[in-house]
Amino acid sequence: MTATEEDPISLHPQVQAYLDRLAGFNFGELHTFTPEQAREGLRRQIPLLGEPEPVAQINNRTIPGPIGPIPIRIYTPSGDAPFPVLVFFHGGGFMLGNLDTHDGLSRSLANGAECIVVSVDYPLSPEHKFPAAPEACFAATKWVADNAASFGGDADRIAVGGDSAGGNLATVVAQMARDNGGPALTFQLLIYPDVDFRRTNFTIREYAGKYGNVSRDTQHWFMDNYLNNEEEKLDPRVSPLLAPDLSGLPAALIVTAQADALRDEGEQYGHRLEAAGVPATVSRYTGMIHEFVRHPFDDSKQARIDAAAALEKAFTQ
């Protein structure tokens, strides 16, 4: 289902209270800030995300990448190795975010799915434009497959996942793995993925600047800082929804939010996967907004439980 002009939006009271607290810092107009100012604004939100849950072990390290070392953070749950592995890519419009902004979500997924989460701090734009991010994420995924046993992981049970821009990178890595002979992937966890840079569907146009979504100007600011030219918007490594063939990809869970500007394209990607014969579940959360899964809303906790259950099921099949 896609949005229509008659589709009613009623934000959950917890979401509305959160947006009211952020009213003094207009994240919808990030294009008026420098990249570092916007990054600092996102870092300042971390205390609003709630107390992170403990995990058995956390290990920070760096691994080789195409343009330099890639920082990663390895979250290991309680239990006996080998564990399945989720390679996770954070959101932030390809410009913002880091291991700390998505620390709580990574911990929750590691515990909930009883899997190791390898969170990847890929190179950000505008310092590193496309294709630096997907190439680094693919390199990190190959490193995980080649070195899983060294940190208690199972190389035969590897999933990719991410939120927003990280969801884009997870889809692109899955397509790159299919097209390059591996590594073999078990599952895709796509949390409100950004998969269509044409920016023409209903929700991307009509919800811009509303419900905590960035404005149309900020949408283009993110894209202009990430890309080298307009033609790259149609590259499937930028807009994976436009890939001509989605067959042969791993099964997927696509999490969407009712009031999210990225809702339509995420759901369209799920429908395209299904049409290509790929098992895909699209799960929309009513009254929720973009980025909701990172926050301590009641429905966010349920979304994390649902995501962990989908991962656990995929790892045990």
Can you describe what's shown?
- With 317 residues, the protein is an alpha/beta fold.
- The chain has helices at 13-21, 35-44, 103-113, 132-147, 165-179, 202-206, 216-226, 263-275, 298-316, and strands at 57-63, 70-76, 83-89, 116-120, 153-163, 187-191, 251-257, 280-285.
- Strands 1-2-4-3-5-6-7-8 form an eight-stranded mixed beta sheet, with helices on both faces.
- The longest helix is centred in the C-terminal third of the chain and has 19 residues, at 298-316.
- It starts with 12 loop residues before the first helix and ends with a helix.
- Residues 1-6 have low confidence and may be disordered.
Global mean pLDDT: 95
Element pattern in H and E:
HHEEEHEHEHEHHEHEH
**Strand share of the residues?**
15-25%
> Major beta sheet, specifics?
8 strands, mixed
List the total number of helices.
9
Radius of gyration using CA atoms only: 18 Å
Helix content: 25-40%
Strands, count? 8
Structural class: alpha/beta
Low-pLDDT residue spans: 1-6
For the largest sheet, list the strands in their spatial order: 1-2-4-3-5-6-7-8
How do the helices and strands line up, and which of them pair or pack?
Blueprint: H1 13-21, H2 35-44, E1 57-63, E2 70-76, E3 83-89, H3 103-113, E4 116-120, H4 132-147, E5 153-163, H5 165-179, E6 187-191, H6 202-206, H7 216-226, E7 251-257, H8 263-275, E8 280-285, H9 298-316
Parallel strand pairs: 3-4, 3-5, 5-6, 6-7, 7-8
Antiparallel strand pairs: 1-2, 2-4
Helix pairs in contact: 3-9, 4-5
